[in-house]
Predict the 3D structure of the following.
Amino acid sequence: MVSDTLHACAVIPVYNHERVLARTVDELLATGVPVVLVDDGSSSPCREVIDTIASTRSQVHLVRRAANGGKGAAVKDGLRTARQLGFSHALQIDADGQHDTGDVGRFLDLARRHPDALVAGYPAYDACVPRHRYYARYLTHIWVWINTLSPRIRDGMCGFRVYPLAGSCTLLEQAPVGDRMDFDVEFIVRWYWAGLPLQQLQTRVIYPENGVSHFRLWRDNALISRMHARLFFAMLPRIPALLTRQQRGGQSR
């Protein structure tokens, strides 16, 4: 089904990304997409940049969290706010310049053709990707494939996505999904478990020189490991349903 009523915005979780945020916002606005900025307890320099952006750009909506709660918590607040504002879809994109805003039109076109589907990006890296990040990512791929009993999900960690807000907010109300760096993976696995439609699109992902990353090696790897374990035990009673889906042809690619 093709939707003629796609009403989309972009949701950007922000935590101390003041150096590149204005550029990212302006590139999104240039595509005609309004922006929901979620300030996840940023420090004063970043708050000042966010306030300037929100006060000087009419298509920017600001959500301010009192304290840092993590990427997942910020995205959840952004999705709920976007729905309250009357949007039908929200494009999640990182504030740090990793994602190619030139692909926004491609993602929204695919969402327009499949309005009930989660449109999930999977990365095409250039030479700037840190090797340890590149190879470590495959450990998560393997766990996602185990926890879905399928290789269908190309990449569970990419934060460039289009969420159909009705289905996404319902899922967040019904299922526990992590608040930090575990959010992206857990959301897409639980989306798959729910039998909801999934579309995937390759997109260029870069690691900007002098870029700011809030991934904490030991803390976040431990968090993600606990998330995979939690999903594994939650997957076990779902094995019959997942195997039946595989026999019937699975979901959309």
About this structure: The chain has a mean pLDDT of 89. The chain has nine helices and seven strands. The first helix runs from residue 21 to 30. The radius of gyration is 17 Å.
